[in-house]
Automatic annotation (TrEMBL):
CDD domains: NUDIX_AcylCoAdiphos_Nudt19. It holds the Pfam family NUDIX. Keywords: Hydrolase, Magnesium, Manganese, Metal-binding. GO terms for molecular function: hydrolase activity, acting on acid anhydrides, in phosphorus-containing anhydrides; metal ion binding. Its cofactor is Mn(2+); Mg(2+). The keyword Manganese applies. Residues 14-227 form the Nudix hydrolase domain. One of its GO terms (cellular component) is mitochondrion. This is Putative NUDIX family hydrolase. It comes from the Eukaryota.
Amino acid sequence: MSPAAPTPKSKPAIPRPSSSVILVSPRNEVLLLHRVKTSTSFASAHVFPGGNLSAQDGPCPPAEDLKRHDDGRWYRNAAIRELFEESGILLAKDKISGRMLALPEEQREQGRRAIHQNQITFAEWLEQQNANAAPDTEHLIPFTRWITPANNTRRYTTQMYLYFLPLPADATDPVLGEIPPEGQREEIQVPTSDGGVEVTEARFLPASGWLRMAQSGEVMLFPPQFLLLHLVAGFLDKDPGVVNSLHELQRRRDELTEFVATGQPPWSEKCISPKMLKMSSDGRAVLALDQPGPELRGTDRQGEPDRVVLVKFERGSARDLEVRWKKDAFEEKSSL
């Protein structure tokens, strides 16, 4: 009897292009959305606004083109559009005057529904509001790309961005009036093709507040959101006893922006595809962040070599997250 031929390995699913925005409020808080448990991705979790690219965002390079995994106008357009669809916050400006558009909430809500139901594109709706309107893609700061590990059946190549809403002295009253104060919830119901609800609420909180809630089990964050909030909190929330003057708010923003441009490679260019290294002594998976994913293997793209994320995955949930230096995670093993 001849030996059975080896079962060929199935190819990883092609990652779908998507964008997300880490939106920082005039009070240096971060916006997260709570996804419902029926969501196809990050179900029940708190996430940054964002979603898949669509044809209206512009032609994204095909799957075989490595530029598909680079920052581009299609990713930036999708980030602004998805933020508007999911949260109602409009980041658009008049191309002639340079001023940000400030539209009444009712007008924006009508636009969100029409765009989400494919009655009109985001660009067409913007032009109806102002003939010179354009998405404010210029102020999106790239802040890592994430490629879903190859063993997942549903994969994404997600460009993350950082965007700072104007500080109070520079913002118009209509814009500030729409932003909930600290801890206040804004109920968000986004219509879908089947009339369901994707997002139950949007909420601004300090990044450190989101981290504490995740560690106490009040909210669920997945590793990409947890790591980026951890990094943001290190700048926007340090020295909590210091009065948040406009000067101090801006100084912290400047330090975060400088940090994003540092590193080997810079955080603006890191491409991360998490990979489990080992199990920690308390049963959590230790995720390496240094690999860019199978699509970019053999290229010069790199991830984050110095940090790891510890997490306990259980029936589709992510709990007990922690960011550690990689060297410290392995020192624990050698001391056992």
